[in-house]
Structure formats: structure tokens, C-alpha cells
Write a structure and sequence with these properties.
Elements: H1 2-20, H2 24-37, E1 46-50, H3 56-67, E2 73-78, H4 81-90, E3 95-98, E4 111-117, H5 126-136, E5 137-148, H6 154-175, H7 178-190, H8 194-203, E6 206-214, E7 219-226
Parallel strand pairs: 1-2, 1-4, 2-3, 4-5
Antiparallel strand pairs: 5-7, 6-7
């Protein structure tokens, strides 16, 4: 169902993101990358973006690492063929595969850094995906999570009200699939808080390094280390 949903909105996915977040999604990805990369101390890192979608996170990380003169190899995994078709044009340097986060098609200890941006809340079996990410990370490897969640501060409540009102309308008009965006909103409502999420990861062999909310307190980054 999730694969069909993203196949159906792939063409306009980037545009809807830019419009509904007023361009903030790019800034969140950039800040999330900068935060996670401060913990990465490897000369030629291998990086996997799980639920890579149209490739924005890979592109963001590539730019940051290029600036630092760090040659990295990039891999992307997503269950939606249509999202990957777009990614292939945007990040031709990355190796992109169709597949599921719950069954990652790479051997144990393959990566120095794994990222998941706005993907985790869509996974049908989150626990399995967390174990898989743990398996493919090297010991001491870094995990970057960027997600939406509801924040109970006044600004967070305002941002949630805006998101709930605007996203299905703009998403619906541009993609013709309003239900897809209603589903995405429901998935944010059902998603655990960063604190609850960090306990899920700690139980499965991760140490939380930092949690940071981004303006206007509707998206956060969590950086973890594989123990
Ligand atoms: C909201 S998009 C995020 C895309 C991208 N990471 C970004 O930052 O824009 C969620 C992506 O997760 C993918 N996805 C959902 N469930 C998945 C799963 N179980 N395994 C792999 N990819 C999945 C979808 O196909 C979609 O491309």
C-alpha cells in the first residue's frame, strides 16, 4: 500500500514538499546532515540512505562531504520504483536499489552511516527495520533520523495546525491524490515522540548522541551510534 501511495505521488513529490513546507524541508535536511556529519570520522565513508525517495538526502550529504573534501560512496534504497526513477536523474553517482527497509539487501557491517529522512514512520514493521539498520551498520557507525513529530509547544501546535490544514489541500491539488496526504498526516499523528523513539532504538543496540528540533518544531533530527 505504501509503495503504491508513493508511486502515485512521485512525479510531484518534490514540488509538494517545497510548497507545503515553504522550502523549509531543504533547510531541515541540510541541518540534519551537518549535525550527523560532525560525528562521522571516516576517510572514505560508505553511506546508505534508506527510504531515499527522490534522492534529496543523498544529494544534500554529497554536497556537504564534497565541501570537506571527503570522498564518499552513496547507496540508496526505496520500495517505490517511481520515486527511484526520479532519484536516478538527480543522484546519478549513487547506487540505487529497489527494496524494503525490513529486509535491506546488503551484507552485515556494510556502512559507516545510514540515514532515514521522513521514512521511518511509513515502515510497516519498524522493529524489523531498526534491526536491519543495526545489522548493516559497522560497529560505531552513525544513524541519522529526520522525522516529523508533534511537538506540544505553542509553536509546534501552530505548525501542526498549519500542516494539517494545508498539506492535504496542496498535495491533493498537485497530485490528484488527497488521500495519500491524509495518510501521511495520520502517520505523523501515530508516530512516537523523539523520547519514546530513542528508547526503541536503545533497546536494539543504539546510543542516542543528540536530538534537535528544527523551526517551527514539527521536524527533528536524532543522531545515534550503533553500539
Ligand atoms: C516521505 S518519503 C521520504 C523520501 C526522502 N527520504 C526524502 O527525504 O524526501 C518516504 C519514502 O519511504 C519509502 N518507503 C516507505 N516504506 C518503505 C519501506 N518499508 N522500505 C523502503 N522504502 C520505504 C517510500 O517509497 C518513500 O519514497
Amino acid at each position: 500500500m505504501v509503495r503504491e501511495l508513493f508511486n502515485s505521488i512521485a512525479e510531484r513529490y518534490d514540488l509538494v514538499n517545497r510548497l507545503t513546507t515553504l522550502g523549509l524541508d531543504k533547510r531541515w535536511r541540510r541541518k540534519a546532515c551537518e549535525t550527523a556529519l560532525t560525528y562521522l570520522d571516516v576517510k572514505k565513508p560508505r553511506i546508505l540512505d534508506v527510504a531515499c525517495g527522490t534522492g534529496d538526502m543523498i544529494r544534500c550529504m554529497m554536497k556537504r562531504l564534497e565541501k570537506r573534501g571527503v570522498p564518499a560512496r552513496f547507496y540508496g534504497l526505496d520500495c517505490s520504483e517511481r520515486m527511484l526513477e526520479i532519484a536516478r536523474k538527480k543522484v546519478p553517482f549513487a547506487e540505487l536499489r529497489v527494496g524494503n527497509a525490513e529486509d535491506i539487501p546488503f551484507p552485515d557491517g556494510s556502512f559507516d552511516l545510514v540515514s532515514v529522512a521522513f521514512g521511518l514512520r511509513n515502515f510497516s514493521e519498524r522493529e524489523k527495520a531498526i534491526s536491519e539498520i543495526h545489522r548493516v551498520l559497522k560497529q560505531g557507525g552513525i544513524l541519522l533520523l529526520l522525522e516529523f513529530s508533534r511537538n506540544e509547544s505553542p509553536l509546534g501546535k501552530l505548525a501542526w495546525f498549519y500542516t494539517r490544514s494545508v498539506v492535504p489541500i496542496i498535495g491533493g491539488i498537485l497530485t490528484g491524490n488527497r488521500e495519500a496526504y491524509n495518510h501521511l498526516l495520520r502517520s505523523i499523528e501515530a508516530f512516537p515522540s523523539p523520547e519514546e523513539l530513542s528508547r526503541e532504538f536503545e533497546k536494539r543496540g543504539f546510543e542516542v548522541l543528540t536530538i534537535r528540533w528544527f523551526f517551527p518544531r514539527i521536524a527533528f533530527v536524532m543522531v545515534l551510534r550503533r553500539v
